[in-house]
Amino acid sequence: MPTRRSAPIAQLDLFAGPDPLGPVYREAAAVAARLPPKLHFGTSSWFSTGWEGLVWSRRYTESDLAHDGLREYARHPLLTTVGIDRSYYGPLPPADLDRYASQLPPGFRCVLKAPASVTSAIVPNRRDESPVANPDYCSVERFQRDLGDALLGHFLPHTAAVLFEFPMVPRAFSGDAAAFARRLDAMLSELDPRIPVAVELRDPGLLKTAYASVLRERRAAHVYNLHTHMPLPGAQRAVVALRDQPFAVVRLLMPPHTRYEERRRDFAPFNRLQDVDPARRADTLSVIVEALGGGLETWVLVNNKAEGSSPLTIRALAEAVAGG
Fold first, then answer.
1. Among the listed residues 280, 278, 239, 236, the one whose alpha carbon sits nearest the alpha carbon of residue 258
2. pLDDT tens digit sequence for 44-101
3. Using CB atoms within 10 A as the burial measure, which of 159, 205, 238, 275 is most buried?
4. Residues 9, 250, 23, CA angle at the centre, nearest 5°?
């Protein structure tokens, strides 16, 4: 495999002296130097206070990390992308995008979630109320208002992809696979072509050839996700071939048939691995290796709920790729 860019090694100069993360960075940089330059690992967000000694040099509050954490995060030699999920829950102010950009080095690109106001077929955040159809479902106008305009004006150089996450909702609202594919196609056809798009499904009933055809036609990427309702990432290739992807996105969220709240409770503070399945790891690695073999820019995002600690999962995956 080609040699990874040397930027992470240079980052160690920032930590000369008695920095508590010096040994961590040296070990990580040695692994990073053996990775292909098109492979980017990152965590699904950066607010975990329990990563002291793994990513953070000292104990921080969530508020500290939310405001200024990207600066230290981006110095880690193995962390060369990150997920920004705040944009899923509401509009992201341009000033916040400017603040994020000011903390990132040139070339560091992020995966931002598209707002739920556009990707949920039902009105989001109604909690226990009866579901109501979302009038802005797949609305390009609403996307531009909630994220697109701010991103184009303030964060495009730091954008690897905008991730449109379509949650599982009652079929009466999402429609069948063919109806979903038509709606997705209409939206993608109107999006600004400067925005790289990735689509993540949470409903396996929508993972059909019509969906794959839309992505291929519109040059949007499928997200090969590890998620409670979905087939394993490797199995998703049977419907959406990697050879048809403009770039590759892998997201490790939580294994099939597991519950988010239980894993969050059991795995906190997310500073050690707790559920490592060699078969799942091998499945993920097969997708990564195939994507890289096809020359694709490859973005791998890991959630703490996948195995217990996303930085440690990333370290293990990176070592496996580097040693392969």
1. 280
2. 999 999 999 999 999 999 999 999 999 999 999 999 999 999 999 999 999 999 999 9
3. 159
4. 25
Q: Residue 159 forms beta bridges with which residues? A: 110
CATH class held by domain 7-323: alpha beta
Three-class secondary structure of residue 52 per DSSP: strand
Do the strands 221-226 and 248-252 form a parallel or antiparallel pair, or are they unpaired? parallel
| Amino acid at position 20, single letter | P
Confidence (pTM): 0.93
Give yes or no for a contact between 197 and 221, defined as CB atoms under 8 angstroms apart.
Answer: yes
Residue 8 has pLDDT above 90, yes or no: no
pLDDT digits (tens, 9 = 90+) for 169-192: 999 999 999 999 999 999 999 999
Locate 45 and state its tokens. 């967000």
